[in-house]
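This follows on from our talk about sequence and fold. Please put the record directly below this note.
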Amino acid sequence: MRETTPETRRSALIALQGEVALTREMATRVEESVLAAIENNALELPTMPMVAARALAMLGRDDFSFPQIASLIETDPIVAARLIRLTHSAAFASLSRFDSVLTCVTRVGAEDLRLFLVETAVHHVLESRDSCIAQMCRDLWQHSLAVAIVSRDLACAVHALHPDSSYLGGLLHDVGRPVLAATLLDAEQRLMGKRTQRWIMPSAWLAIISGKHRSVGAAIARKWNLPDPVAHAIRDSSDYDTGNRFSTGNVVLLADTLAKREGIFIGPINAEEIEQRLSMGKQLLGVDDALIERLVTDLGNRVAGRIN
């Protein structure tokens, strides 16, 4: 075994300090680049996939036709397959099987079809081929689905105004994270050169994303022409709004807190902060422990049912 001397330990410490300093410098430069893009409305936001966008537009008309919408969905095998899987999940449990897109569309109905189409679009955003963020995106998809499911159930339980908007707000509340992650990767390549193998430390990377992702998510909701309560839920779900107890943002924040408490989350979890947010959310929304337990019962399997 190679013996270490005070001199070699000192050299290693100096090298590590230099590495940390370079990481901080890189993180600062990348963050400045991303913030400038946000400020100048130059950040490239993802567009909604064509089939989802067209189907949502068709659903927005008074004279929409399920057969026409089904024919459109059939042009995208991935979307069609996901819709068929959804109708066979526990959420739409039935003795009958729905093997055609048309019967599936009819089974889920207009409102749930709208939610499914936006869900499909969000899943598209949360897919990445870049190994740096691919696992984060997979974990984030599970977390987003968990928050969406609990948000809608909670909104219904407390008679909030917008259960479907609560679902979409939960689904999209973190959608700005992968967009910022991809932008950070691109900014690093531009600032440091295409051949660099270096990447900022995870702590600095997560700090940048966590601090700025909500404004990006709200911008995506507006670009996709989603209802105003959805954009508000994304923007306002960092802190409780004591002036509007049953706001969509409050519903999403409590749902987000519960998903984190259940361990369906990416990144470190502050247990003390979770308990504080849970206590305040329960008080604002008038929720008791029995309802909390019903909201999270079998949550992991319910999320898996939306994925598999």
In short: Residues 128-308 form a domain with the Hypothetical protein af1432 fold (CATH 1.10.3210.10). Residues 13-20 have pLDDT under 50 and may be disordered. The chain has 14 helices and no strands.
